[in-house]
């Protein structure tokens, strides 16, 4: 029994500290004695383990969450810093303002998103105060107060920094906007608007309020005729006409909704057919659409507007609640970061086509806080010509051009857009156009002729819109790049480096537009899909339902959103202030 206990203890010790033992003991009973054999064993843990690169992700919006969901390389140690510990499905915020969907239904805790991943991820609920690009440090302040009611500050080091913090609301320095208007960027904004709408109806129902004051209180003004402003106006109209009129019958005829837009039309980024239908439908629904009206001042009870067409006449509009939904601005610490790296007087961080911040090697920016600075063809025309002219003849043949055509189109997407606008298949057709009736095979161009041919290509360059769709695709793209970082270092898969030797590690980011929706109320939605396909009506509304349900980040939120829609169809919208 004593021998058994000894071997048990020895086995346990060896199992717990196997990597530290260099002796293997083998004891047997031989002629009443013991035989001791020695041998060396090297533990597996002594093998060299590559050091993990530390990736800091700022923000849990569309860009940051898409990056986290798709990052699968265990060689990274990820630290997420965000003032909110959840992801919000922002396209449904207008639905939250009117009780169509509950706020809890469109949010998903970020820890649920990455808790089952093989990647080591840490989360800190804090806001970024400053980025020190020179020393690779991020200065943060906790959102949670300690016992002394103070918020702790800390510093996070990084090897790679992913900036996906979105943007602030742009007030264009209009007096009174910050103090008197509601915004619609966060879940808290939508909840506050919902409470204010009900407050307005309750205040207008008080017997001591005059008729004139009731009209003012029940006048809802929306500034901005973009998708968010239009959808909120439509949602509010449905909420009032389908639900609140039954609860407040005595004041239903006093409600007024006004949509103010400085431009000539609402939904100017959509097809003209959608714009015309939306304006006509709003007028039929009784929503007052004022185009060409720029807001110049907002007080606690009135909005001052300047007419863009009638000689700049200024007029005032009394209101009970105002929602500001126009433009995006830069966050203060992003402005400071841009000044550090020489990007001054910009609205957003400039990145290259691989989402890497210009003038840095280890910082990436995506989503609303960044914009891709697409390189122009004419900036590299000499390098392109030299790379294609392999025989150094001083002229380019069609064959020589075709050999680098794919790399040119991949590196400069405006080339492909220009060819499509001209209904051409490839650059050979463009070369032939410049030479008239000459056969393709016999075409030769010198560098000056090539400059003439490609002189208008850069006119097709376009900035990407600040939408959830763009941010989501950028997050997925960057995660895929990080997943294959080591592989692509050895075997680059990107286009030719025209100014240098070799190839780029990755293919540049390419945005694929999947379409856009504009809910117009009354179970009607306008849809503009790829291929210039426009659909308006009830069928598009059901398409909207299916797409927005399928795009939820979890089955939990998907089930909750569908349940909310079903509840609304059966019982109506929730008009409580909770």
TrEMBL record:
InterPro entries: EF-hand-dom_pair, EF_Hand_1_Ca_BS, EF_hand_dom, FAD/NAD-bd_sf, FAD/NAD-binding_dom, NDH-2, NDH2-like_C
GO cellular component: mitochondrial inner membrane; peroxisome
Primary localization class, coarse: mitochondrion
Keywords of this entry: Calcium, FAD, Flavoprotein, Membrane, Metal-binding, Mitochondrion, Mitochondrion inner membrane, NAD, NADP, Oxidoreductase, Peroxisome, Transit peptide
EC number: 1.6.5.9
Recorded superkingdom: Eukaryota
Keyword Membrane set for record: yes
UniProt protein name: NADH:ubiquinone reductase (non-electrogenic)
Organism expressing this protein natively: Phaseolus vulgaris (Kidney bean)
């Amino acid at each position: 029994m004593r021998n058994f206990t000894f071997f048990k203890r020895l086995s346990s010790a060896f199992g717990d500290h196997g990597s530290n033992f260099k002796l293997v003991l083998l004891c047997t009973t031989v002629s009443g004695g013991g035989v001791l054999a020695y041998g060396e064993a090297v533990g597996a843990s002594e093998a060299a383990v590559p050091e993990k690169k530390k990736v800091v992700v700022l923000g849990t919006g569309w860009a940051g969450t898409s990056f986290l969901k798709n990052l699968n390389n265990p060689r990274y140690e990820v630290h997420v810093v965000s003032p909110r510990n959840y992801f919000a499905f922002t396209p449904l915020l207008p639905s939250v303002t009117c009780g169509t969907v509950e706020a809890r239904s469109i949010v998903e805790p970020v820890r649920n998103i990455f808790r089952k991943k093989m990647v080591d991820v840490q989360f800190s609920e804090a806001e970024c105060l400053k980025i020190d690009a020179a020393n690779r440090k991020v200065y943060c302040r906790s959102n949670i107060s300690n016992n002394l009611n103070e918020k702790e500050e800390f510093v996070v080091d990084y090897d790679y920094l992913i900036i996906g913090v979105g943007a602030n609301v742009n007030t264009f320095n209009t007096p009174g906007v910050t103090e008197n208007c509601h915004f619609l960027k966060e879940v808290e904004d939508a909840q506050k608007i919902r409470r204010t709408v009900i407050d307005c109806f309750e205040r207008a129902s008080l017997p001591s309020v005059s008729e004139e004051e009731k009209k003012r209180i029940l006048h809802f003004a929306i500034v901005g005729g973009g998708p968010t402003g239009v959808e909120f106006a439509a949602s509010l109209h449905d909420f009032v006409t389908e639900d609140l009129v039954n609860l407040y019958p005595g004041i239903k005829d006093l409600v007024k909704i006004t949509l103010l837009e400085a431009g000539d039309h609402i939904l100017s980024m959509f097809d003209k057919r959608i714009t015309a239908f939306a304006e006509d439908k709003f007028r039929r629904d009784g929503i007052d659409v004022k185009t060409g009206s720029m807001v110049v001042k907002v007080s606690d009870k009135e909005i001052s507007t300047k007419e863009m067409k009638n000689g700049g006449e200024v007029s005032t509009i009394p209101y009970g609640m105002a929602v500001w939904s126009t433009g995006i601005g830069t966050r203060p610490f992003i402005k400071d970061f841009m000044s550090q790296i020489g990007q001054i007087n910009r609205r957003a961080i400039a990145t290259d086509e691989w989402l890497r911040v210009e003038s840095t090697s280890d910082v990436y920016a995506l989503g609303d806080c960044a914009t891709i600075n697409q390189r122009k063809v004419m900036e590299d025309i000499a390098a392109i010509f030299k790379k294609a002219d392999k025989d150094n003849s001083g002229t380019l043949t069609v064959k020589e051009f075709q050999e680098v055509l794919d790399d040119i189109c991949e590196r400069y997407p405006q080339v492909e857009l220009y060819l499509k606008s001209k209904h051409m298949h490839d650059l050979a057709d463009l070369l032939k156009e410049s030479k008239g009736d000459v056969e393709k095979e016999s075409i030769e161009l010198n560098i000056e002729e090539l400059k003439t041919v490609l002189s208008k290509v850069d006119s097709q360059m376009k900035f990407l819109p600040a939408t959830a769709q763009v941010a989501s695709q950028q997050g997925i793209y960057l995660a895929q790049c990080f997943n294959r970082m080591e592989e692509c270092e050895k075997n680059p898969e990107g286009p030719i480096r025209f100014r240098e030797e070799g190839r780029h590690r990755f293919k540049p980011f390419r945005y694929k537009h999947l379409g856009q929706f504009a809910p117009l109320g009354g179970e009607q939605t306008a849809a503009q899909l790829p291929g210039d396909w426009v659909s308006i009506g009830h069928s598009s509304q059901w398409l909207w339902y299916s797409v927005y349900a399928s795009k939820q980040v979890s089955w939990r939120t998907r089930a909750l959103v569908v349940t909310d829609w079903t509840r609304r169809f059966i019982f109506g919208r929730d008009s409580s202030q909770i």
